[in-house]
Amino acid sequence: MRVSLFLNHACNLRCKYCYNGRKFSRPMPWDVARAGIELALAQPGESHRVSFFGGEPLLEMDLVRKVMDYCGERSASTGKRIHHLVVTNAVLLDEPRLDYLLERGVYVALSVDGCRQAHEATRSFPDGSSSYDLVSTNARRLWEIHPEYKVIAVMDPLNVDWLGDSFQALLDLGARNLSMNVNYEGQWDEPRRERFKQAIRDLGNRYMAAYRRGTAFTLNLLDSKIVTHLKGGYACGDRCDFGCEEVAVSPRGRLYPCDRLVGMDDKDDVVIGDVFQGIDTRKRDALIARKNKLLEDCADCALLRRCMHWCGCVNHAMTGSVGGVSGLLCWFEQCIIEEADRVATILFEEKNPSFIRRFYAPRVVLH
After folding, report:
1. Rounded Cα gap, residues 196 and 342, in angstroms
2. Which residues constitute the domain of residue 205?
3. pLDDT score of 295
4. In angstroms, rounded to a whole number, what is the distance separating the alpha carbons of residues 264 and 145?
5. Is 310 within the bounds of a domain?
6. Is 277 within a domain?
7. Are 225 and 180 in contact (CB under 8 A)?
């Protein structure tokens, strides 16, 4: 099982698009963290993951260390392997903290929005000052060691004009595993949607240029849609787990099917239990059933199998229901699929060796 510990609602940045709501200090007590670890270990399987999330999890570094030590002890006593991941904004990722995390085998994922203009448009300190220089310095240090560790960049109406520049800037910083995600909750009026279309075309051109240079990288936004074309759609294993093999633990100990849903820990409709009593399978299964119910409007869509209409946390953010699919989501998915098909067709016709090797190997993996 994968358990995500939401260590605090506090954060040292004030990102314009943050889905976690108001920032306030509610650190996770040790008994909640320990119960989260035991929840994972109680599940079948010999390998589990305990992740750190927030807020900014590195604000609670003492708790991170305590969790790591306890997991080491419990792993030794049970024979079960426990892996770790932290998602951080990189502000506090100085050399001592980075060295500790890497020495303990923690996978470090960074939230960085790309080039200076894009990052400064959305990810400032509380006083409005720039976090870019500090974040980019710390990010480069990580990627010099582990370029395969993921970077998460968010496309928002405030920074979408620099999408192509951000892609290139992240490659220049040393990142090679890029996750560029749309802020679906943003104010995407018609002019901003037109800017998105222009930006994603620029991204596609930069994507092709990187392949032509022989740069090794992954980009979830386009890669996933190329793979869905080759596989005939998303497989069941590609879709979000939603509370079956992965749960998020709030600082109060409440369980959510996805860490995106924790927010301010006030959404009772998507709570699926608590860390001391365990998962309420009745509530979880009811949520899954609502999430997976196919809407009549989607049934005849030619892109249905390639569309992320099944993402419960995105649906909840956009419509208030895990099973409610927004027309805006459909529009974004169509744009992304169209651009992925365009660049894939061009690179295939060019017989680009890196592209052919990546996507036409005997077994294709969805990143």
Report:
1. 16
2. 2-238+333-359
3. 73
4. 35
5. no
6. no
7. no
